[in-house]
Design a protein that fits this description.
Blueprint lengths: L1 H23 L22 E6 L3 E6 L5 E5 L7 E6 L6 E8 L4 E8 L4 E9 L8 E7 L5 E14 L3 E12 L4 E2 L4 E4 L4 E2 L5 E9 H9 L17 E9 L5 E6 L1 E5 L5 E5 L5 E5 L4 E5 L4 E9 L3 E6 L23 E7 L5 E8 L5 E4 L2
Antiparallel strand pairs: 1-2, 1-25, 2-3, 4-5, 5-6, 6-7, 8-9, 9-10, 10-11, 10-12, 13-14, 14-15, 15-16, 17-18, 18-19, 19-20, 21-22, 22-23, 23-24
Length: 363
């Protein structure tokens, strides 16, 4: 009888812990004040691509707002771990992961003729085994794919900054061969220039080197980068020339996005401050897209940014579904576009699960 009571007690305690965890992890909804300005998104004429659990892949044309399955959800097809594209020819790149036999594949889907090809297949689980990072970048032209592989954890500040550092690889989708260039890189952002020959990535510089680099430019936002500069090694946006292998360290930051004309790079810091580095003028300007969150920008022009943002005040707030009972639901975010000069903004996609793998590109 005592044994039965102990078992029942343990089950009851476990159930209580699950319930308390779920209750304590209810979403903390944040919003930003309106009003929104209709029509700002009219120039967004590309395509969004995102995963559809489990194993599915969906595209949305931002001109027609039509959804199309690139591949339908099927657990046996493997998990879509990361996605990039489309490029100007309609190619989409994904990392497909198979946890059951610890292998992953780099695949190319062609939207124009519904074909798929495999660039490589490798051993290693990318979800739990760190065989490849979360970021994947397909160049708009030339058919190059960049990713960070064989990552390991680096703790930049105790206790809450733990990032993945690995080998930057670039593959040619036409020849299915890896370029001879290999660099070390943080898995916190990759972005191609429109010429398909230059790549913005994030490296780690020693604190003294990063400080000297920071002091060479005067950022109008004095708060920008201050937390990062206190770390022993500092994330820094750098530019790789894939034809020569030369690298230029640009400025403190991570999650870079190169503008569609290639003249500017938007980047952020640990405290969700954001700047734009104008390459031709070699000047820096702080930017304040309304409600931007840590996931950052998806697309940049001279006057606007398309980005992950908080919901607008007065709209219906929604939470994620199919959550871990120990973590609970998360707020659904939005995709917004904003003008830098006026601060006007508009919601393009109202409900986006932050766990989704999302890319924007094409024409």
């Amino acid at each position: 009888m005592k044994l039965v009571i102990k078992i029942i007690t343990k089950i009851a305690l476990f159930t209580l812990l699950i319930v308390l965890s779920f209750v304590s992890c209810q979403p903390n909804f944040e919003t930003i004040p309106g009003p929104e300005t209709k029509g700002i998104s009219k120039d967004l004429n590309g395509t969004l691509v995102f995963d559809k659990p489990v194993g599915g892949l969906v595209s949305i044309s931002l001109t027609s707002k039509k959804e199309k399955f690139i591949r339908k959800p099927d657990e046996s097809s493997g998990l879509v771990h990361s996605v990039s594209g489309p490029d100007i020819n309609g190619h989409i790149a994904i990392i497909e992961n198979h946890m059951e036999n610890k292998r992953h594949l780099l695949k190319i889907y062609e939207m124009n003729n519904d074909t798929v090809s495999t660039i490589f297949e490798r051993k290693g689980d990318v979800l739990w085994g760190d065989a490849a990072g979360d970021y994947l970048a397909l160049s708009p032209v030339n058919g190059y794919i960049a990713l960070v592989t064989n990552t390991s954890s680096v703790q930049l500040r105790d206790p809450d900054v733990l990032l993945k550092y690995g080998t930057l690889e670039i593959w040619d989708i036409k020849t299915k061969k890896k370029l001879s260039i290999e660099r070390r890189a943080l898995d916190v952002g990759l972005s191609w220039f429109p010429d398909g020959k230059h790549l913005a990535f994030v490296d780690l510089l020693n604190q003294d080197v990063a400080n000297k680099l920071y002091l060479t430019k005067d950022s109008p936002n004095k708060r920008y980068g201050q937390s990062n500069l206190k770390w022993p090694r500092v994330p820094t946006v750098s530019i790789l020339d894939v034809e020569t292998g030369n690298v230029k360290n640009l400025f403190i930051g991570w999650r870079p996005i190169v503008s569609e004309d290639g003249d500017a790079i938007m980047m952020g810091d640990h405290d969700n401050n954001w700047i734009i580095f104008y390459l031709n003028e070699a000047i820096i300007k702080p930017v304040y897209p309304p409600g931007i969150i840590w996931l950052g920008p998806l697309h940049l022009t001279r006057s606007t940014v398309f980005y992950w943002g908080l919901p607008t005040e007065g709209t219906e707030l929604k939470a994620t579904k199919n959550n871990s009972p120990l973590v609970g639901p998360k707020p659904m975010y939005t995709l917004k576009v904003a003008e830098f000069e006026t601060g006007k903004f508009e919601t393009v996609i109202p409900y986006i699960d932050p766990r989704r793998e999302i890319s924007y590109g094409g024409k």
